[in-house]
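Structure request: NADPH--hemoprotein reductase, Pedionomus torquatus.
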Amino acid sequence: LTNMGDAGMEATISPPDATAQQDSLFSMTDVFLISLITGLFTYWFFFRKKKEEVPDLPKMQSVAAPVRDSSFIEKMKKTGRNIVVFYGSQTGTAEEFANRLSKDAHRYGLRGMAADPEEYDLSDLSRLSEIDKSLAVFCMATYGEGDPTDNAQDFYDWLQEADADLSGLRFAVFGLGNKTYEHFNAMGKYVDKRLEELGAQRIFELGLGDDDGNLEEDFITWREQFWPAVCEHFGVEATGEESSIRQYELVVHTDVNMNKVYTGEMGRLKSYENQKPPFDAKNPFLARVTENRKLNEGGERHLMHLELDISNSKIRYESGDHVAVYPANDSSLVNQIGEILGTDLDTIMSLNNLDEESNKKHPFPCPTSYRTALTYYLDITNPPRTNVLYELAQYATDAGEQERLRKMASSAAEGKALYLSWVVEARRNILAILQDMPSLRPPIDHLCELLPRLQARYYSIASSSKVHPNAIHICAVTVEYETKTGRLNKGVATNWLKSKVPDENKSNSLVPMYVRKSQFRLPFKPSTPVIMIGPGTGIAPFIGFIQERAWLKQQGKEVGDTVLYYGCRREREDYLYREELARFQQEGVLTQLNVAFSRDQAEKVYVQHLLKKNKENIWKLVNEGNAHIYVCGDARNMARDVQNTFYEIVAEFGNMSQPQAVDYVKKLMTKGRYSLDVWS
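Returned structure:
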């Protein structure tokens, strides 16, 4: 290249022979450049090919290798287990049932383990037949509108895509659902059907638990028939009565560094002092309450609007999402349990799993104090399940009380009826049971081992992130009722939220929270009409929807009809967000505001009555305007009545039979044009 440069310089300096030299020079340069370019291209081409053709096998293998560590098969072989019980759990109940089934196994000379599908490679199901007398049981809860729980999402995706041969797999499924929901037990039904399609052998029929009825009884009834079927299949017999086997051992810490003690954190120690995103169920964000105001003007109930500050959290949400909050139990209940059991609640302890191979080392974060465990980690307000009563029975010194507890925990019809009336219908929590059975005084550590975890509570977000990017709004009603025993029971989360007052310096204004994504979404096109039906606190997501439609309109977007059907008891008592709704209507964002006051006249008027009254307009919006329909609130009555009203409207104006109208509405649901955000 230097020579070529020199030649170029010479060409410029020597004008007399310029033409001859130029001819000669250009031909030499052309040849050289062509050769150089060809050489470079050839080198690049082969170098590239070489890189593509050499497979990077060592890297692939090193990435795949750790899968062995997540193999439940290897773990079962190592620990001598032959039954694995997987659970898809959102609120902890399916996990609890899985633990009970895995514990049952020892009565039949078998060994079980409960397993979170999120922690293992489920493609290993095809290898389960390598273990003698092996069985996979699935306790699968259905969440929301027929969705898998968060921890079962990967398993569900794998089942949908898998073409595995599961012909050697023996299985059984128990589903946890709620009949008030449209897609009752969808996940349990799907897992049961899909495993059979993949060649697996069902050894006992699908169990369908209904939380709207008596989920505990459904589970016990299924379980008492399930084990005889297992015995028959494997040719084994029960080795004896159900016995109480401790899963955890108590370690009391007398000399402990308090910086190593959990004080309510859900995951990482000191995570509330040193907050680090991303925030989720195991790492909630401590949001400050900046507003907490009563919404209703009268009546016995307390309806409230709270605003949580999420500044600097990097938390993002969309209208229709849910906010999960971790509440704390009432300190007076905690103190009463401590007093009745004669315990120093400030004792620092750990409950350590006796099974060293278990992934679950403790039932809740340890070390901690009994006070912290009973306040932040354990459910002390719901009626305990029968397995808790069975385990506690041994500690009742009065023979009559012990027999009563054992009877309620049995599968006999008389025992089930007694449990239903004395515990479930009377809404007796653990404190009430201890109070009503004076001889029952269990060790507090065993009680802490048996009680289920206190779960996060979900609320539909009542704001739009377009308008409030640094805040999440909640609309809730405090739960408070008198039980058949004359006790006053209070909802854990709502009464705890009620006590949260805006205060910049005190921890009393802090709420541990995270956001859970939802499918409850506004249409992609702002011009699409929306029909929103949400009586009571069911209005929450629609406040966010209307805020967003107002924001879109301000941005110059064409916004379609925004129609709201809202209902409350009395206009002057519990008409929520009255001023805000009036303003939105005045601004032309809220096209129609239809409000049903159920108790302001002799005959009760509900949202479905207003829908019928405006049926022609409803049909026009749905049929011609391709409107999206949203229903939020009570699943048991309101959502069902509203859906039946839509069947009637479609049948009448669409000239369809009842089955055709039902099919029409179901298709709207499939297309995402009829969405539900309901609870029971």
